[in-house]
Amino acid sequence: MQSKTKELYDQFALQNYASPPIAIVRGEGTRAWDDEGREYLDFSTGVAVNALGHCHPTWVKAVQEQATQLGHCSNLYASPLQGDLAKRLCALAGPGRIFFCNSGAEATETLVKLSRLHGKKLSGREGQRFQVVTAKGSFHGRTFGGMSATGQEKTQAGFLPLLTGFSHAKFNDLNLFSDAISEDTSAVLIEPIQGEGGVHAATVDFLCGLRELCTARGILLLLDEVQCGVGRTGTFFAHEEAGIIPDGIAMAKGLGGGFPIGAVWIREEFSNLFQPGSHGCTFGGNPLACAAALAVLDVIESENLLQKVRDLGIWFKRELQGLATRFPSLVAGVRGQGFLLGLVMNTEVGPLVAELRDAGLLTVPAAGDVLRLLPPLNVSREDLQESLQVLGSVFKIKLEH
Ligand code: PLP
User: Fold this and answer.
1) CB of 104 closer than 6 angstroms to any ligand 1 atom
2) If residue 118 lies in a helix (H) or strand (E), which one and from where to where?
3) Global pTM?
4) Which of 100, 112, 134, 139, when mutated, tests ligand 1's pocket best, judged by the most ligand atoms within 8 Å of its CB?
5) What is the pLDDT of residues 340-388, one digit of tens each?
6) What CATH class has 59-302?
7) How far is Cα 401 from Cα 155, in angstroms, rounded to an integer?
8) SS3 state of residue 26
9) Is 260 in the pocket of ligand 1 (CB under 6 A)?
10) Which of 7, 257, 320, 384 is most buried by a 10 A CB count?
11) What confidence tens digit (pLDDT) does each residue in 328-339 have?
12) Structural domain boundaries of the chain?
């Protein structure tokens, strides 16, 4: 990293992140370049944000053109793009309504607020029924709602007391979720695939069982698809594989393809729980963000990316399993679906991420021992092959030392 950037970071940036090892200054497709001109194959994609890779021409054109028309107007006024995007998302999720925000944490926060409104309606009283059951190992964001919903102590450490009203049951264990639901429960909130928690996928039986359970108990089934949604698993929403319809879905990350936007879909019958004045977001549904998200949806459709993710995702996972077989002392297994994949390592993953970066491949660590591979949805087979070569040669060097 150039010394000026490092000095500025060291002196002025809040030290809430680990010290960044490189500065990325340019991107094109699957490639990113640092400020010293080094090229990388970027399978970190801004942690599942750059769904179309860097600077896809359709995305660039949409943002550029919108910037010449209108950069922002508040939600005091209607924006045609917001209407278009809401309609497109409802066509994908089902009959319902959309709330726009800027981030994953705001989206999950909105689901938590929805659960409170639902609980109030069920019990007829404010503050009576507000328990939300979430999963151990989950991650739902850094706001107080998201952090309290999160099933990992390391995210919460230092910020106690948390919001009351959350309990955490073992992921994929329907009986334990059932036991955790009480007369005070208003919702269940889970990620169909836990990303930060180490790439753990919910089973179809678990998702279907939760749907039945929530319907039977009159509570909401809320899904956090912030990381696993927007095509990453080969269907637009990860839960589609189970054929269920949830009551609320949080989205962000890939939705804007690199432009900050979050969204919440709320099933029609619960969408009137929010009344005028009960919730809002200054930047929510900003025209530039909506233009970017509409471009992402257009490209997913026009380039048939869901099918491509399904096909190449199966092939890539099989190849990764081959690597695990070749290097059993290093790799314990492969988890995930589509292009949300994790290599489960037998050792701490931090040093490996650095070694891969030095070899030209950007990846993301998760849960201490999982190497996340998050290629853009439009990655080519050649790029996937290249990543396998880099992984193979770095593993080989590791074994030799
Ligand atoms: N929910 C999930 C499943 C996530 O993976 C994340 C971020 O990693 C969030 C919520 C929070 O999103 P953001 O960082 O945009 O607030």
Assistant:
1) yes
2) helix 104-123
3) 0.98
4) 139
5) 999 999 999 999 999 999 999 999 999 999 999 999 999 999 999 999 9
6) alpha beta
7) 34
8) strand
9) no
10) 257
11) 999 999 999 999
12) 59-302
